[in-house]
Amino acid sequence: MKKKLTKIFAMIFSVALLVTGCATVSNVYDESGKPIYFETPAFFGGQVAKIGNYLYYANGYTDASADGFDYNIASQTGYLARIDLSTDLVFDEETEESLRQNTSPENSEKVSDRFVGYQNQNMFAYGSYLYFTSTNTHKTSSLENDYSRVTLMRVAFNGDNLTEIYTTRFDDSSSIEMVEGSDGNYYYVICAQNSEEEYEISSIKIGDVLGSRVVLAENVESYAIADNSSSSKNVIYSATNEDGEIEIKAVDFATEEKRDYTYASSMEISFLDRVGDIVFYSADPANAEKEVFYKDLSSVDTNFSATNRFFSADSISNVLSVENGYVFISANGGLIYKTLNGSSVSLLSSDTTVKLLFERDGWVYYSSDTEINRISVVDQTIENIITMTSIVSGECGYSDGYVYFFAKLEETDSSSEEDSSEETETDENYYLYRATIDGAGNYQLIGKTK
After folding, report:
1. Nearest to residue 396, comparing CAs of 425, 435, 361?
2. Longest pairwise C-alpha distance within the chain
3. pLDDT in tens, 196-213
């Protein structure tokens, strides 16, 4: 009888482990010894998160949209990791000081095997959890992998309770944002395809208790989601109604309350971006050429009359609020700074292919395949943050005076002096690095190499 009871308890314990998981690392405590708990979401650029003394991050990076992407191989380097930054980085005693910037620290820890190092990452801390996105691991009905889908996930800071929240299709026209709602709660707001040609907007309340997904709008043509500086906590969108006509509405993603907007039926409108309550859209009033206009959604006026012209182009993208105006990428690829009613200033020509990262103290940070730079919108001064052989442009995080990015390993003096007759295997993976945010030019490998 005793042996039977022992087996029963062993089975129960095994099931409990499968359901709850077991901690892979220690919990994180504040200065008073209490577990870290974020009353409001903490966002660090999307690729890292600072929780107590620990930096959480994707150890490496792989493009999940590339041909031949293999989840199992990518997750060997792109797993979720953390490192304690309250002390100096720890290196093997035999590692020379001059080689340590390209050497992995030894005090990093794996938090989860789940793959996190890829494009479309959206990482932040809220409550007792780290929220992040991962590629879909569920096979289709024909038993094929579909890595075009994105899975929203969360995990406790000690690696417990890894949870899949929702899996959605995701392409260049899709968006996933985390925004505060009009009810004071926080929501994932998702706009993604639900069929070959139609988009839908949905929301999921997050927090200690996760809500169910709510569909807010269907047949969506274009949209602009509120950010955390918006007073109107809604999504404005254009959609095709049952009569085949395009309507403009705004929907509150907490209450589902909708507001109708009007526009000239002869005009074609497409929403481009949104900062606070200012929404940018392209329109062709009076059958003229398309230009970019703006509208303040906090206004009682519900008519899109296309009278507030912003920029002479048919499209803009990646709009950031900087100083008294906005920085954006123009249709031809140039980097522009402009106030709402003032003249525009060209910061970078279209000859330079860059991606915007973030804004800090009037500096706009941007990246290319080999550099991270910053430019002042005041006097157009450009400062180099880092130059390396190969950088993943557009993917970064920032915390405590550092910008975090993915790059290939730099060749060191010792590696270049190796006997050229010996065949050496080159590590082509991308790993997490960091560089000081003020442009000092130094960098440090953080990710653990294979």
Report:
1. 435
2. 88
3. 678 999 999 999 999 999
**Fold of the domain spanning 2-356:** Methylamine Dehydrogenase; Chain H (2.130.10)
Give alpha helix (H) positions in 354-450.
413-416
Higher pLDDT: 177 or 16? It is: 177
Cα separations (Å) of 143 from 86, 106, 146, 149, 353? 46, 39, 9, 15, 39
Q: Which residues of 241-272 are buried (b: 16+ CB within 10 A; e: fewer)?
A: eeeeebbbbbbbbbeeeeeebebeeebebbbb
* pLDDT band (50, 70, 90) for residue 16: very low
**Helix, strand, coil content of the chain in percent (nearest 5):** 10, 45, 45
pLDDT at 96 over 70: yes
> Within 10 A of 300 (CB to CB), how many other CB atoms are there?
4
Task: Give the model confidence (pLDDT) of 59-81 as tens digits.
Answer: 999 999 998 999 999 999 999 99
Residue-by-residue DSSP string for 172-237: TT-EEEEEE-TTS-EEEEEEEESSSS-EEEEEEEESSSPPPPEEEEEEEEEEEE--TT-SS-EEEE
Cα torsion angle, 279, 361, 46, 311, sign: positive
Q: Are 48 and 397 in contact (CB under 8 A)?
A: yes
